[in-house]
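seq as requested:
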Amino acid sequence: MIKYMFGLGFLLAMSISSCEQKVASQETTYINKDLPTIGIIIFDAVITNEILAPLDVFSKHTANGEKLFNVIFIAAEQRAYKTEEGMRMLPDFSFDNTPDLDVLVIPSSYESAKQYKDQQLVGFVNQQYDQLDYVATHCAGAFTLAASGKVDNKQLVTYITGGESLQKEFPNLKVQDDAVVSVARDGKVFSSNGSLVSYLGSLDLLEALTSSEHRKYVEGSLYLDRLITSN
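struct tokens:
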């Protein structure tokens, strides 16, 4: 009996070890190191549009079927997260094992103070910022980026009616008029009003990363022309 229990324990340990190696191997091969990597942050109550829009835009292949980017979801912990609209999502990586990023996308929730006062989240943004080629915020994600202390004196736009609050909270920003500005760009920083405007912000960033021709191709792939209302 003791020999049987020992043998069973040994097999179980070997199985767990094998699974761990498999997971580690998957994480290693998940990223194509020849492609830029775009990380999209997720957290509880994140607004679904603001994470699906960049995923939708940046995961589209070229007209020749070529993949252009690694697109991954990142969160503080390796667990399930529930969006504002009820979708359950699993991150690909946690803050602790995030691969090198070229672009970071910061969405928001309807209780944005939880994000921009979250020291772990803001610390991650601060840590990543200098090595990034681009940063994109949607809606109140601008508050989280501003809280990192990396964008003083830069132009940012936030959700519609949110500009006054953003300017008051972070007086060193150059907050744009959200009543007329949908997407703002200042150097490597893109910001948008959020929600469905996240598509427009993502497309502007896509054009900066690729070309106007590829942007038009992706717009066509998304059938955006069909959204134009006719009388």
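Residues 1-29 have pLDDT under 50 and may be disordered.
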